Amino acid sequence: MSEKACRNCRLITRDRVCPNCRSSDLSEDFTGLLVVLDPENSELAKRAGIKKKGRYALRVR
Amino acid sequence: MSGEAPRTSLYAVKVTIGQEKAVVEMLADRAATEGIPITAILSAAELKGYIIIESPTPHHVDELIRGMRHVRGRVQGVVDYAEVDRYLQARPAVEGLAVGTIVEIIAGPFKGMQAKVMNVDKVKEEVTIEILEASYTLPITVHADYVRPIKGVSP
Question: In DSSP terms, which residues pair with B120 in a beta bridge?
């Protein structure tokens, strides 16, 4: 299954449901990539509103 | 805005164009397996040939990218957080587009042509445009990402 990004939290996943927010509103059409390794100390994650480790899309259509 | 200054800085790294995402994935894997204190790595579609690494010190970035394929080196100095804010915050694609705006089509079969915006659908983020170079009026509807405003509302 191809990678999809959650329209709600922007997490990139191969599952049918977002493992982060349990939303099924996923899209194959996304751009950008932000890998958050340490959300507690990351200013980028804070500014993007991300609180959990993972791979996120920057823009989801 | 919190008053506390961030303990990390942003460093730009030059990479082979088209390999930005692959490099981000490889670097993230290396940081996790080798325990290098990198807090986040970013690749934006608008930023071709560069990735942004967030780390407490530049030495950790140098350690992370050493010997990595497709990496051309770290750019001297740091990147301001304000500069990357525009990649992080999802702004509406229809921003700056209104009826009458002259736009350039930046993708698809009509790429490079100029058109006039006839209608804006803010919910679907679509615009209906009329190509200026066409000899007869042909309204087409495209996603707002595929056009770039070049001139404000014309009379």
Answer: B127
**Cβ(B92)–Cβ(B122) below 8 Å:** yes
Residue written as token pair 């009026």: B137
Task: Report the complex ipTM.
Answer: 0.91
HSE-up (13 A, CA, CB side) for residue B120: 20
Do B88 and A61 lie within an 8 Å CB cutoff?
no
Q: Which is more confident, B6 or A21?
A: A21
Whole-model pTM: value is 0.75
Could you tell me the domains of chain B? Answer: 9-88 (3.30.70.940), 101-153 (2.30.30.30)
Q: Is A32 on the interface with B (CB under 8 A)?
A: yes
CB B41, CB A55: distance < 8 Å = no
CB B42 within 8 A of CB A34: yes
